[in-house]
Amino acid sequence: MTSADSMETLRKRTSEKWRTHPDDVLPMFVAEMDFPLAPPIRAALHAALDAGDTGYVDPHDATAARAFASYASDVWNWDANPERMGYATDVSVVIVESLRRLIEPGDGVIINPPIYPPFFELVPEAGGRVVEVPLSDDGRQYSLDLDGINRAFEKGARALLLCSPHNPVGLVHSRETLTELSRIVARHDAVVVSDEIHAPLTHHGTTFTPYLTVSDEAREHGIAAESGSKAFNLAGLKSALFVAESDRMTDLIRGLPDEVTFRTGLLGLMATREGFTHGREWLAATISTIERNFTVLEQQLAEKLPRVTLRRPNATYLAWLDLRGLGWGDDPADRALHHAKLALSDGISFGTEGRGFARMNLACAPDTIVEAIDRLARAL
């Protein structure tokens, strides 16, 4: 298990999670962990600072790419080739820079709400037009609406921005689903950009399938956005990877402006290398902690807020809470903030399908979860 830092220590942090709200608010919104850095990452960063190694990245240094490739091979049985990878500041940049080169201005790009809120902005930033095909929901589990995606392509959409695993619901798409998706995309001569930032946080007993491994079609028309930032809490260090499997997508990466690489954080690449190489034991323990925290949340809800429901995810440390039973309207996160002093991510920002929902960050101490539910119960 991985233990969270004390609240006293956490409130000394200056990141968004700990500076957006006053100290009487319990912050459980933005995707930052409350855990200390993995020891190998901390040691590598200290060594770099001691050496004054804080300059620009060497664009020819493939150590971070090789570390990711080794991890992908060992954990996902994916023989990704470092020579078909490139660096960028973060996954959002990988998405935008890829889409800019894969679509024409005004082309439709499919997203699947409820979805990571920046997707609604990244598509137009890249020159595209958002086409919403919501997740299917049978009341028990979410899934991609493959028929809806097919219809959207028939109506002219040219790309799909895939969230895999899916934020905020923690859905890990099956190999069968992704294979069928790849066939649909290929039939329409479209493309896929697959955001796989949460993949290393797939829970034990669940198999994550990289999109670029499911078929020859996927390898030809897909490009993946990968990073250690969520798995190892490195968002502020600015490092992500473009990953390709085809000559077409490799040429896209090699044709990027040099500045896309040079804007990458040197410390981020160091941390990425150390995390995927030497931080695996820490990551496994952290996932176990997250799984335990979901059990704590389930128990707390059953005992104190039975009208709030949660479908346990198969990845991420993010809990997608259905608060509609409380009668707090379309934006219960606003009610939670002002009446419970609890900061959650508002469901509405994930799309209209998020009305009445909120997202809670469980990368924290179990006591923090207990306190959060106590605050909600008192507000109710």
Protein described:
The chain has 380 residues and is an alpha/beta fold. Helix content is 42%, strand content 14%. The protein has 16 helices and 15 strands. The protein has helices at 7-10, 16-19, 39-50, 63-76, 91-102, 119-125, 146-154, 175-187, 216-221, 229-232, 247-254, 258-262, 266-278, 280-304, 332-340, 366-379; strands at residues 26-27, 85-88, 108-111, 129-132, 136-137, 142-143, 159-163, 191-195, 222-226, 240-243, 309-310, 318-322, 342-343, 345-346, 357-361. The strands form four sheets. It has a seven-stranded mixed β-sheet with strand order 2-10-9-8-7-3-4, sandwiched between helices. The protein has a four-stranded antiparallel β-sheet with strand order 11-12-15-14, with helices on one face. Strands 1-13 form a two-stranded parallel sheet. Helix 9 links the parallel strand 8 and strand 9 (222-226). Helix 7 (146-154) runs parallel beside helix 8. The protein is globular and about 60 Å long. The two termini are 33 Å apart. The mean pLDDT is 98.
